[in-house]
Amino acid sequence: MGAVCPVRAAHRVAIVLLGAGLLCSAGCVSKKLEPADIPRVSSSQNSKGIVTLSWASKKGYQYRLMIRDMKTGDWTPVEGSEVYKGTGETITVQDQQNPNKPMPWYSVRPEKVAK
Question: What are phi and psi of 99, to 5 degrees?
Fold first, then answer.
């Protein structure tokens, strides 16, 4: 049998506070995203460099179109794009890119709309 390590009162308080902090950070944050909330983006690019992007939206959400910087790996909002309101329908938008370069990676960042 292994050695038993007694927990001091001060340690119990620290453990409770740590547990509460973990619980709060896991469940109390309003901007937490679940993988099911992030829609799959369909994309295609024509010979003129126009990229057409579509995704299924949900009521109660708004979406920001993001693009990945292929040099740094950072995701940033697409320049000139707006925040799109979820309607329960498919959202389709277009973005202009250089037709002589590979199509960049796109994603959308959903946010729950406060009621």
Answer: -70, -15
Which domains does the chain possess? 35-112 (2.60.40.10)
Residues 6 or more apart whose CB falls under 8 angstroms from that of 87 comprise: 57, 59
pTM over 0.85: no
- Residues shown for the chain: 115
- Predicted confidence pLDDT, tens digits, the chain (115 residues): 544 444 444 444 333 333 334 333 344 444 566 777 889 999 999 999 999 999 999 999 999 999 999 899 999 999 999 999 999 999 999 999 999 999 999 999 999 998 7
